[in-house]
């Protein structure tokens, strides 16, 4: 079929699966960072985002993000592709060569729909780390649905919807021409500032910052970081929308920037605290991935190393800002995603290499400030739009729940897993021995009662 490329399609199917896998990876990453009494809820907040946002995306989210513009580059037509109408109409036969179906470039449009759905899902899930331990699950679900609809879908239109012969896209992509290859603004700045606004409205955890609230399972954190790095190749290289040289370029930059960021974070820890930690290594990995996301098509591999190192150091320092300014960002979404997203987006204006696929020269390559101001405007536009509207959405959700958007102090002390889900992440009951019988399973109450009755009869 004319225009169809099976290699591009195969790569994009794989990339879609890789990016979707990132959300369970995020669940492990976040789940290991909280206390044991909160791990199930933390993972549920990520996984529930998959269910909720996936449905909204098919109903109207894709249409808002990639439908024909109806508002000066701000919004796509939400009814144009409602329920994906018009995107799956085709003539199918046993012979693929004789089939015809709607294309997006060289791939079926539905593959592109699925790929972009995974971006929407993980962006919403990222926010949850800022309100770990304390936000009611029902309130989170309502917030997630409203935020995806009012904030993410329009911003995705601004950044990812490029003009074509049949569709008019968003203003950042087409009028401003800021470079954001895979979502530094739409995903990371967007989620990072939303996390800050939501954390302020929800309030601080009971006992923070006086009481230590250490990660309960660093093994899960390291596993999650590894899965995120693996999936991020679909995130960045997949954004080339084909199996081509741009994908290869984005892949190598994703590798080296992340390596450099991990080293930058560990060196910063070593100098500041005297120790390099596994949590620091995992966080440095994520900081590098965040930083290279907008720039992986526009900086050289050497530029990617420099960018990654800068992001690793900046994010390692930024996670301490919450103690200085008094906002309880539980899992450092602001310090890593907001700061890393801002740094990666703005550094394009300095480090963009005209020999890269983006073919744009930054300040250090003789391009002056032309690209720099575009990057700054794009980053600040998303920051203010998302920050203000997230604050409003959070207040609305709080009002709907009668001002009780978070757990009571008693429930928070007991643990959000039990109070919200009636479950615990770890069941140690079968491993507890009776006094003086280490290693012997503790009988339950019914067994003890039955033994007492038998003993009484025998007596």
Automatic annotation (TrEMBL):
Signal peptide extent: none
Membrane topology value: Multi-pass membrane protein
Keyword Repeat: no
Entry keyword set: Ammonia transport, Membrane, Transmembrane, Transmembrane helix, Transport
Limits of the Ammonium transporter AmtB-like domain: 10-426
PROSITE patterns assigned to the protein according to its UniProt record, in alphabetical order: AMMONIUM_TRANSP
Residue intervals passing through the bilayer: 12-32, 39-60, 107-127, 139-161, 181-203, 215-235, 247-267, 279-296, 302-321, 333-352, 372-397
Pfam families: Ammonium_transp (PF00909)
Keyword field contains Transmembrane: yes
Localization: Cell membrane; Membrane
Region of interest (Disordered), residue spans: 412-459
InterPro entries: Ammonium/urea_transptr, Ammonium_transpt, Ammonium_transpt_CS, NH4_transpt_AmtB-like_dom
Domain of life: Bacteria
Family in the record: Belongs to the ammonia transporter channel (TC 1.A.11.2) family.
Protein name, entry field: Ammonium transporter
Organism, scientific name: Pseudonocardia xishanensis
Lineage, uppermost ranks: Bacteria, Bacillati, Actinomycetota, Actinomycetes, Pseudonocardiales
């Amino acid at each position: 079929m004319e225009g169809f490329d099976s290699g591009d399609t195969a790569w994009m199917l794989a990339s879609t699966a890789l990016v979707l896998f990132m959300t369970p990876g995020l669940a492990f990453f976040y789940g290991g960072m909280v206390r044991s009494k909160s791990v199930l809820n933390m993972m549920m907040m990520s996984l529930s985002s998959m269910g909720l946002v996936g449905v909204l995306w098919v109903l109207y989210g894709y249409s808002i993000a990639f439908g024909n513009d109806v508002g000066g580059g701000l919004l796509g037509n939400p009814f144009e592709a409602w329920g994906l109408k018009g995107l799956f109409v085709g003539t199918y036969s046993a012979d693929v060569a004789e089939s015809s179906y709607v294309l997006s470039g060289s791939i079926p449009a539905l593959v592109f729909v699925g790929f972009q759905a995974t971006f929407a899902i993980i962006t919403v899930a990222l926010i949850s780390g800022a309100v770990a331990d304390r936000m009611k699950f029902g309130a989170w679900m309502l917030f997630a649905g409203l935020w995806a609809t009012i904030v993410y879908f329009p911003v995705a239109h601004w950044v990812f919807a490029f003009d074509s012969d049949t569709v008019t896209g968003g203003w950042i992509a087409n009028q401003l021409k800021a470079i954001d290859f895979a979502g530094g603004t739409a995903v990371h700045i967007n989620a990072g500032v939303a996390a800050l606004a939501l954390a302020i409205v929800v309030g601080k955890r009971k006992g923070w910052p006086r009481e230590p609230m250490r990660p309960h399972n660093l093994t899960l954190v390291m596993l999650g970081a590894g899965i995120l790095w693996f999936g991020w190749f679909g995130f960045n290289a997949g954004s080339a929308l084909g199996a081509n040289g741009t994908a290869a370029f984005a892949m190598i930059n994703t590798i080296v920037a992340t390596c450099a960021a991990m080293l930058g974070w560990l060196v910063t820890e070593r100098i500041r605290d005297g120790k390099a930690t596994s949590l620091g290594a995992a966080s440095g990995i994520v900081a590098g991935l965040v930083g290279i996301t907008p720039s992986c098509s526009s900086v050289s591999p050497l530029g990617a190393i420099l960018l990654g190192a800068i992001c690793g150091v900046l994010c390692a320092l930024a996670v301490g800002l919450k103690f200085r300014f008094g906002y309880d960002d539980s899992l450092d979404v602001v310090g890593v995603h907001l700061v890393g997203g801002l740094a990666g987006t703005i550094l394009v204006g300095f480090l963009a290499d005209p020999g890269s696929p983006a073919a744009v020269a930054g300040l250090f390559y003789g391009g002056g400030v032309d690209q720099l101001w575009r990057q700054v405007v794009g980053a600040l536009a998303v920051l203010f739009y998302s920050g203000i509207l997230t604050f409003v959405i959070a207040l609305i959700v709080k009002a709907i729940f009668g001002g009780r958007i978070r757990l009571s102090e008693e429930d928070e002390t007991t643990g959000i897993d039990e109070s919200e889900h009636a479950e615990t992440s770890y069941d140690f009951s079968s491993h507890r021995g009776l006094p003086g019988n280490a290693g012997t399973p503790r009988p339950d109450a019914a067994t003890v009662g039955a033994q007492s009755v038998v003993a009484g009869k025998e007596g």
